[in-house]
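As the work plan foresaw, our protein records have gained a structure token line. A representative record is set out beneath this paragraph:
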Amino acid sequence: MATACSRVPTGTTPAARLQAPRPSTAAAGLSSRSAAALRGGAPAAALAQRCSSRAIAASQRGAQPATVAAAAAGSAGTVAVAGATGLVGTALVKQLLASGYAVRVLTRNVVAARGKLPYPGIQFVAPQQWSEAVRGCTAVVNLAGEPIATRWTPEIKAEVKRSRVAVTSQLAEAINACPEAQRPQVLVNSSAVGYYGNSESQTFSESSAAGRDYLAEVCREWEAAAQKAQCRTVILRTGIVLAKEGGALGRMIPVFSIFAGGPLGSGRQWCSWIHRDDVVAMVQEAIRNSSWEGVYNATAPNPVRMGELCSALGSVMGRPSLVPVPDFALRTLLGEGASVVLEGQRVVPSRAQDAGFKFKYTQVGDALRAVLRA
């Protein structure tokens, strides 16, 4: 059970290659003291002092010092994050802490989340206390959702949608229930470039119409749930995130390392990619910059086709990209879910560039080299 002074223990193709890591999600709540502090029922200074005393006692016993109390925000503010144990979430939490924010991780599995995020300054909050946890926060960031690169049974398709829409609705309701003086200033909510549907010839910006396939339907409902929040709302339609710890690239690197890599399907499908560092930077810009509102494409300025991505990866790794995975093999393995890797869309980040956002990685070769050096 998380308490006001919880300790953090020391410490996220072919179809299988492309399944993204699943954010952990089971239960522990805020203690009564933490909840009271969030409601304004306990002075922050007194609570922080009690936590400090416990931290000192813990360190004398050889334990790791306790985390910051719920009411004692970081110097930059406090951010509540759902989906914090996923590919983007783990990097975001680390960067938020480095930037001076206190972080409240909204999770369905407190024990697992602590294991993946072993940093001081984090409070872990189970679903029944999310409403209390968002109160008084500077921002709420929602990255939660089931992975989509798998075989789509009717049950999985329902869960893919439910996991996004239900969590987003819960967070919007929690924000709206806050007294105005304690309401978060902004909700930064993830979406996906699947919003636009698939095309080999079109280029999509934020003003483009939604597609008509299943993933477009999921994204429309996901975004509609976020727009119900009564605060500034920023929606990031995110492309293929490049990081070696997971996602599509995390599955491809081991295959290329054994000289078995190559494009998926025809290699002609578009890949609207983005380095994980740039996604994290966009989330932070959305938190800090009050002029950011509405939809932004979280993709690098220069999308590439699948064949180009695989050639660049092979070149960076010193491996050939000669073993294509045929369409029929992926469709046999993934069924309808093969569309995630066999089809794509050319998406450009028009609004972010117009707002002056500077991407650290604009060319896929540079991004891949950085990933492999990390």
About this structure: The longest helix spans residues 154-177. The two ends are 35 Å apart (CA to CA). Confidence is low (pLDDT under 50) at residues 1-73.
